[in-house]
Design goal:
Elements (H helix, E strand, L loop, with lengths): L1 H7 L5 H14 L3 H15 L5 H18 L2 H19 L2 H18 L2 H18 L2 H17 L3 H4 L4 H10 L6 H13 L3 H18 L2 H12 L2 H7 L3 H13 L2 H8 L5 H13 L3 H22 L4 H7 L3 H11 L4 H81 L8 H33 L7 E3 L1 H12 L7 E8 L6 E3 L1 H17 L4 E8 L6 E8 L29 H11 L3 E4 L8 E7 L6
Parallel strand pairs: 2-4
Antiparallel strand pairs: 1-3, 4-5, 5-7, 6-7
Helix pairs in contact: 1-2, 2-3, 3-4, 3-5, 4-5, 5-6, 5-7, 6-7, 7-8, 7-10, 8-10, 10-11, 10-12, 11-12, 12-13, 12-17, 15-16, 15-17, 17-18, 19-20, 19-21, 21-22, 22-25, 23-24, 24-25
Length: 611
């Protein structure tokens, strides 16, 4: 039934069919069909009824949509009426007022769809007026909403293509933004008519840039799309003939085909063609026509009082002179003065708009270059880190894996091949290689969890000495002969810290592991104190080992940084320690005053400050 009514829009059979459609919708309790009835009624009246009838139908649809909670239809009522005001009434002020009210309603109802439609239509209005600065502002806002929305109704819309293509035409062809918005429109294109529109505007772009081969290829595609071509671009033949004439240098034919063009956008396009293909005479003629149209538009939109125009130019003496002269001049002389004054105001406005637009374009280009450079630098850095990580991990994983495979094969030899002592020794190597491999994988997983926000902190109350005791138990069997491991507790026995004891143990274990790797003889001390940093418990691990080279002091806590590339490890341990400490509300650092060897410190707040 809907298809029958839809086909009858604008025809004599519409009223009876739509009434029947409404009755069926009510009988079946179909709320969506009821809304379609009101929308069809509005569309029908927009074909030639009075302004009052159209506005009444708009209000009826809005009331019904609001009652049913269907805001898409509510804002469709606005855009349908606005199209009527634009195409039939040619009432620019009424259209602007209607869309401004639509945007206010979108704000009041928190409707993303209303903002999208309102901004998109405002961009169209300003584009038709030749006010490209305001057109860009609204079109960019509509596209921002479209590109970021999660509303399926907006996501399914492809009408944004028209805004993007029109936005592209507001820039000269040598401006990067012209190409950028054409490319964005191509990405959105979903159906044949979208691709057709893209082809049409892109053919004009290539004509403006001087890429004649691409222009002709797209022109032929556009002209072969018969039903779309005549419907959407009725002056397409005139414009293409003018374009071909400009390319061929046939300026007489160019002039013949431009006489009946009145669209500001098309005249701007033709003016750019004349400049591109070297005819300054036609550039001047077309610019004169553009100024004339802008003047007419301005004259119809603003007061015609001469003194107001003079005052607008900031010249009081001129205003007084003109008022005195008005008494002595007849009507024709007054009109001549008015035209001259208006033309001066128009020239000033055009100059100001040009300067503003040029500055905005330069700022946009500069910002775009900065963003592109920043993105390139970030991509290069990410690529460098990825390469370093892959190379580093490939080496680190291969070493213990080779040991596992090699010694496992030795252990699998027939009985009697190896002595019991050799078997014990090889089994220890296999066990140690397994621990190293598991440690590497744990580091990678821990770092990934921290970066993804999946690393959970569990706060509990505990005595600092207990965390140190557990950390020592985990590593004491790995302390080589010739190294003395001491524990120093310098906190009250009843002191209780609120933090994550497991994460503190993890950090201390990492400190101890590094100390064992880098100390061949001497001592390793682990302890805690409350005297170094008031309000914090300072856990520390100090050793008499090789210490930290001066050139690596500032980078020791960064990822993949290792003191000795020949020793096991991915260079992630201290980076993980720093991230964990920050989550606990504390910090890790290298004591600059400790010598010889190294002293790593973890400061943890006594009260829970974890993130």
């Amino acid at each position: 039934m809907y298809e029958l009514v839809d086909e009858a829009v604008g025809k004599s059979a519409f009223d009876s069919l739509n009434t029947r459609f409404h009755q069926l919708a009510i009988e079946h309790g179909d709320k969506n069909a009821e809304l379609q009835y009101y929308l069809l009624q509005l569309r029908h009246l927009c074909r030639g009824s009075s302004k009052e009838q159209v506005l009444e139908a708009m209000e009826n649809l809005k009331d019904k949509a609001l009652k049913d909670g269907e805001l898409k239809y509510y804002f469709n009522a606005y855009t349908r009426a606005a199209m009527y005001m634009t195409d039939i009434e040619n009432d620019e002020k009424a259209v602007m007022s209607l869309i401004e009210k639509m945007l206010v309603d979108a704000q009041n109802y928190g409707s993303e769809y209303g903002f999208y439609e309102g901004n998109r239509y405002m961009a169209l209005i300003y584009w038709q007026k030749g006010d490209y600065i305001n057109s860009r502002k609204y079109a960019l806002e509509a596209y921002r909403i479209y590109s970021q929305t999660k509303d399926p109704v907006i996501q399914e819309e492809t009408v944004i293509i028209r805004s993007l293509l029109e936005l592209s035409e507001t820039y000269t062809a040598d401006n990067d933004s012209a190409r950028l918005f054409l490319d964005e429109a191509r990405k959105v294109a979903a159906v044949a008519v979208d691709t057709f529109r893209c082809n049409y505007h892109e053919s004009r772009y290539y004509a403006r840039t001087g890429d004649i081969r691409q222009y002709r290829e797209l022109r032929d595609k556009v002209k072969s799309s018969g039903r779309y071509y005549k419907r959407y671009y009725p002056q397409g033949d005139l414009l293409y003939r003018a374009t071909d004439a400009a390319i061929d240098g046939d300026w007489e034919a160019f002039g013949r085909n431009t006489d009946n063009i009145s669209s500001l956008t098309d005249l701007k396009y033709l003016c750019e063609l004349a400049a591109r293909y070297g005819n300054e005479e036609y550039v001047a003629k077309l610019e004169s026509r553009i100024i004339s149209i802008l003047f007419t538009t301005m004259a119809s939109s603003h007061s015609s009082d001469v003194s107001e125009l003079a005052a607008l130019m900031g010249n009081k003496e001129l205003s007084y002179s003109l008022n005195a002269a008005e008494k002595k001049l007849d009507r024709s002389n007054k009109l001549a003065i008015l035209a001259l004054s208006s033309f001066l105001v128009l020239l000033i406005i055009i100059m100001v708009l040009y300067i503003i637009e040029k500055r905005k374009e330069d700022a946009e280009k500069e910002n775009l270059i900065k963003k592109l450079k920043k993105s390139k630098d970030e991509a290069d850095e990410a690529n460098r880190l990825k390469t370093n990580f892959v190379q580093n991990m490939s080496h680190e994983i291969r070493t213990p894996l080779n040991s596992l495979v090699g010694f496992a094969q030795l252990l699998s030899l027939p009985d009697g091949t190896l002595t019991p002592e050799e078997k014990d020794e090889y089994a220890k190597v296999v066990s140690n290689s397994s621990d190293v491999l598991i440690g590497l994988i744990d580091d990678i997983l821990n770092l990934a969890d921290i970066e993804n926000g999946n690393y959970k902190i569990k706060i509990s109350s505990f005595n600092p000495a207990s965390a140190i005791g557990y950390a020592v138990k985990l590593v004491e069997e790995r302390v080589p002969a010739g190294i003395e491991l001491h524990t120093k507790i310098n906190v009250p026995g009843d002191l209780v810290v609120k933090s994550d004891s497991l994460r503190i143990q993890q950090i201390l274990t990492n400190f101890l592991t590094n100390a064992i790797k880098n100390t061949e003889k001497g001592f390793i001390n682990i302890g805690c104190t409350t005297e170094e940093n008031p309000g914090f418990v300072s856990f520390y691990v100090e050793d008499s080992g090789i210490g930290i080279p001066p050139e690596k002091v500032d980078t020791i806590f960064e990822r993949y940084v290792k003191l000795d590339t020949f020793k096991q490890g991915a260079g992630l341990g201290l980076s993980i320690c720093r991230a964990l400490a920050e989550k606990l509300g504390g910090r890790v650092y290298l004591d600059p005053n400790w010598s010889p060897g190294a002293r790593f410190v973890l400061d943890v707040p006594m009260d829970d400050k974890g993130k």
